[in-house]
Amino acid sequence: MNIMLKVKEWETRKRKHQRKQRSYRGVLQLLLVIIWIAIIWSMSAQSYQQQDIQPWLQKLSQRMHIGLMLPDVHFTYSGHVYSLKQRPYAFVEFFFRKTAHVFVYAVLAALVYGGLRYKRVNIQRAILLALIVVVLIACIDEYIQQFSSERTSSIRDVGVDLLGGCLGIAIYATMRALFRKK
Fold first, then answer.
1. CA distance to 3, 112, 118, 136, per residue, from 26 (Å)
2. 48 has pLDDT over 90
3. What is the pLDDT of residues 125-150, one digit of tens each?
4. How much is the pTM?
5. What letter does residue 85 receive in the DSSP assignment?
């Protein structure tokens, strides 16, 4: 009889400990999301000159003695013409910036989605909520950029950020499924 009471008491303490650990992990995940949003918004508040990588690209190409014949690839995005042949550094920087948008919002979506799945929110709701957070933060991000010198705000960037969010959730879900199989 005494052994049964001790086993039950041990199981009760174990369950309390597990709940406490889950609570700490939930707080940590929320804190990571908040920190990541703060990083996004701090980058939004920077001027174009603070984020300009073209001087670095020019130094790198001079050091590596890159002398390639570039094709005449060009396109227009938000009223700006990007030409690989005429302005190669601006062209490369454009793709770097858009890739950064995709990456930053992929991480945000993965953090939100992962936290919601950890809290046992069903998959569809977790995806929807994570993407709502991505769109909301992206819209605020673009709004903040209106007040930065020489930065442009574009609804197209919100679309790029949403694409990044979808990619982040897909990668997170795939990685989680692969690790569960192992």
1. 35, 11, 8, 21
2. no
3. 999 999 999 999 999 999 888 887 67
4. 0.77
5. T
- 73 or 167: which leads in pLDDT: 167
> Is residue 73 a contact partner of residue 94, using CB atoms and an 8 Å limit?
no
How far CA 143 is from CA of 113, 151, 153, 155, in Å, comes to: 24, 11, 7, 10
Interatomic CA distance for residues 24 and 60, integer angstroms: 45
Dist CA 72 CA 83 (whole Å): 7
pLDDT tens digits along 151-177: 778 899 999 999 999 999 999 999 999
Query: HSE-up of 93 (CA within 13 Å, CB side)?
Result: 16
The total of other beta-carbon atoms located within 10 Å of residue 137's CB is 24
Residue 159 in tokens: 């679309």
Residues 106, 99: Cα–Cα separation, whole Å: 10
Per-residue model confidence as pLDDT tens digits over 117-127: 988 899 999 99
- Pair of tokens at residue 110: 């993965």
Spell out the residues 6+ positions from residue 16 whose beta carbon is closer than 8 angstroms to its own. none
Q: What percent of the chain has pLDDT over 90?
A: 38
Find, among 90, 97, 80, the residue nearest to 161 by Cα: 97
